[in-house]
Amino acid sequence: MPLFMDRHDVPGATAEDVAQAHLSDLRVAADLGVQFFSYWFDPDKGGVFCFARAPERESLVSVHEKSHGLIPNEIIAVSEDDVLRFLGHIHDPVDHTEVTSPFRTIMFTDLEGSTALLESLGEAPFLELLKEHDLMIRRALVAATGREVKHTGDGILAAFDSVERALTCALAIRRGFDERNQGSARPELRVRLGMAAGEPVDHNDDIYGSAVNLASRLCAAAEPQHILVSEVVRNLAPDGFRFGDPETRHLKGFADPVVAYELTQGSN
């Protein structure tokens, strides 16, 4: 089904008004075959933008017309890859007075055997597989409201405000690649994931710090289609997530051994 971005001009609207309108959209969207992924609000210019999958443009108009009557001023078809990459950097709290904590859960992903795939397939086929890989991860990030910090060449560095959302996202990524590999005759794509938590430093659209370094090393130490998390992430995980026994790891760049856990199952 095609993907669309629509724009509403709503001068004078508040973030709360927009949030309520979006909730109204969600109540009727499924009946009209529309799936909303995200929205964001520019209070300075009075603009609202919605990202959705729909059978056709008219379906998106019908949802807005039926739910609250705010017809889009413009609707354009969009590239999923471009929009998901952009949405991964969006954070639009309903309450613009909220004070956010600098504490983040950091996640690295890494595509197993990317160099070997490139050499065996050639550049063009490999880039098609890499694009598929990127889309799968970005869909999971958007669903979990994660922020894509940067693309690492054969993986993605992401940050989350919530440990629970980060763990849910990691499991969704692993599940997505498991399902893709079972139902595809194309070369397998397998990813390893590493997660840590702390207070990274933001600088020049990147993040730095010990938590970032630890997440990177845990990702490198993980087996393909496995998720390794730090002790802090394990201790902050809500009930329902399951982990393996603690493992002592000697990681590059860390003088002391690091305790890590394998995330095995989610809360559902």
Topology:
Layout: E1 3-9, H1 15-29, E2 35-42, E3 47-53, H2 57-67, E4 74-77, H3 80-87, E5 104-111, H4 114-121, H5 123-143, E6 147-151, E7 156-160, H6 163-182, E8 191-198, E9 201-203, E10 206-208, H7 210-221, E11 227-230, H8 231-236, E12 242-243, E13 247-249, E14 258-265
Parallel strand pairs: 8-11
Antiparallel strand pairs: 1-3, 1-4, 2-3, 5-7, 5-8, 6-7, 9-10, 11-14, 12-14, 13-14
Helix pairs in contact: 1-2, 3-5, 4-5, 5-6
Q: Provide the CATH topology of the largest domain.
A: Alpha-Beta Plaits
CATH C-level of the largest domain? Alpha Beta
Strand count: 14
The low-confidence parts are 89-100
Residue share in β-strands? 25-35%
Radius of gyration: 20 Å
Order of helices and strands: EHEEHEHEHHEEHEEEHEHEEE
Note the total helix count.
8
Distance between the amino and carboxyl termini: 28 Å
Helix/strand/pairing class, anyone? alpha+beta
Anisotropy-based shape? globular
What name goes with the CATH superfamily of the largest domain? Nucleotide cyclase, GGDEF domain
CATH architecture descriptor of the largest domain: 2-Layer Sandwich
Helix content: 25-40%
User: Could you report the average pLDDT, rounded to the nearest whole number?
Assistant: 87
Number of domains: 2
Largest sheet: 8 strands, mixed
